[in-house]
Structures are given as C-alpha cells and as structure tokens.
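For the sake of clarity, the format in which proteins appear in this thesis is described at this point. Each number in the token line that follows is a code from a learned vocabulary of backbone shapes. One such record is shown here in full, so that the layout can be seen directly:
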Amino acid sequence: MKLLLTLYILIWPVISTGILALLVVSLIRDIKRARSEGKSMV
C-alpha cells in the first residue's frame, strides 16, 4: 500500500512536466506560424 501511495505522489510531477512541454511546443509552433503569415499573436 505504501508503494502505491509513493508512486501516486511521484507520478504527478511527470504528468505535469509532460503537459507543460506539450503547451510550450504548441505555443512555439503557433508563434512560428503567425510570423510566417505576418500576423500578430495578440
């Protein structure tokens, strides 16, 4: 039981890091696309 609780607590930083990386990559792609089209992100 203690092992499951430990794994549950330790997996959240991994999930959060993955989601953050996905958001950053998407943002960079959007910025590059907007620059190539001559549009503003705002």
Remarks:
- The chain has a mean pLDDT of 93.
- The chain is about 85% helix and 0% strand.
